Amino acid sequence: MALKRIVLRDFVIVSELELDLESGFTVLTGETGAGKSILIDALQLVTGARADTGVIREGASRTDVSAEFDTPASVRDTLQEAGFDNDGDTLLLRRTVDTAGKSRAWINGSPATAQQLRTVGEQLLDIHGQHAWQSLTRPDAVRGLLDAYAKLSTATLTTLWQDWRQAQAALTQAMAAQDSLQRERERLAWQIGEVEKLNPLPDEWDELQSSHSRLANGQALMDAAQTALQLLEDDDNNAISLLNNALQQLQSQAHLEKQFTDPVDVLASSLAQVEDTVRTLRGYLRHTELDPQGLAELDERMSLWVSLARRYKRAPEELPALLATWRTELAQLDAASDLEGLQNAEKKAHAAYLTEAKLLSKARAKAAPLLAQSITQAMQGLGMQGGQFQVVLEASAQPMQSGLEEVGFLAAGHAGSTPRPVGKVASGGELSRMALAIAVTTSQLGTAQTLIFDEVDSGVGGAVAETVGRLMRQLGADRQVLAVTHLPQVASTADHHLVVAKQMSGKVTLSTVAAVLGEQRVAEIARMLGGEKLSSTTLAHAKEMLQSGA
Known about the structure:
Blueprint: E1 3-11, E2 14-20, E3 25-30, H1 38-46, E4 62-70, H2 73-82, E5 90-98, E6 103-107, E7 110-112, H3 114-124, E8 125-128, H4 139-149, H5 155-176, H6 178-198, H7 204-216, H8 218-234, H9 239-253, H10 261-287, H11 292-311, H12 319-336, H13 339-380, E9 388-400, E10 403-412, E11 420-421, H14 428-443, E12 450-454, H15 462-475, E13 480-484, H16 488-491, E14 496-505, E15 508-515, H17 518-530, H18 536-549
Parallel strand pairs: 3-13, 3-14, 8-12, 12-13
Antiparallel strand pairs: 1-2, 1-4, 4-5, 5-6, 6-7, 9-10, 10-11, 14-15
Helix pairs in contact: 2-3, 5-13, 6-12, 7-11, 8-10, 9-10, 13-14, 17-18
């Protein structure tokens, strides 16, 4: 069991529908125009197909589609990686589209994106449409079928291809730009040489300014220190003498007044600090003298800083960072102009690509005849006795992202005819049957537990139609199969039968889907055989078909 339940609200011409689905092979039948493909369209929407306001039932504000699945192990891993709840055995997908074109999606009740629905849906459903043969003319689809059959992944090859192309582009660009690169390199090297003569260091500009300011004001600084010394110690009424007198006065009476204790301590501390200050100032004056030569040297170096800063339109303090930037750019240019290094990188990337591509080619060559044999065998039971199917590999004109060969399908619809490209097979019926043979063959490869066939049996009938039905029933033995069909031979072989019908509700046409059993199913098969007017003959034929198909 895989798809358990689908619920539609205001979808196309369906007002409300809640449908439980069974395992095995289920067919959907109904009159032309009844909307047999509505369920498939709804499933495509809820598994991430492009949202369109055209799916909203006329007069409704939005459409709402939900689908409930069993949760396979592979999907559990996907859900866990994306951060969705996956504790239960049931997976619920939901999608809404309103008349403004806004689409919303949920996975197990948590908001999701359409891409996340697609990622999950690809692991749940495998849909084969009635125009499936058209994809057989597309090289990418043909190659994809062969790779799927051979269980090959091109992810690694794609990465190696991109690496090689990037290495090629870097080499080509470097070769084309050698002259301009050399000119740019020479310009940078000259600029770097100019600034390196100065060798500006980080934070040096601030230190230069500070030192220059100190030397330029040397006399004023010395005068200030000398004046402070006089006030603190040399004058008759200096600060030290005054502090000493105040301290002695309080100390002499401190034994009588406890409140003098704190002032005495403060004065003693202040006196000690002033004496330290005096020693510091005397040391400063002893070791400091005017330095006109040092000032001139600072003037000269600061002048160089300012000159270079003006030349390159930068603030002086930005010169160290500018030099570092130029050095980085020069290193990058050196790397870009290293043709030998770029050539070696391109050769290495090419060799890695070729190694992986040849492994894929070998695996494809091994799988191609096996796939052709399987499809040829399926064709024999679809009214194409003696028909052949070939999978051909031809070396491509140049290496491609997908590998070193083109993959093509050739087919002959009957014995004695020459296999030709599938797209040139004349009969539409043959094309449909080939597509069905491929679908049946390749469907057994996928991991999806639900296979859906949307009128892929168009263009066939009689004994071939019976074979189609048996093939689908065979698939339904271990996979859930849903098929939209107009053939009574196919419908009669199904395990379950759903009928899609139109009915008028006022002035509005609505579509319904219901399971049919017993006489109702006989009547539906009879309708498919002979039209709306049921005769005893068609009813008897329908019963016979159901009995033989059971």
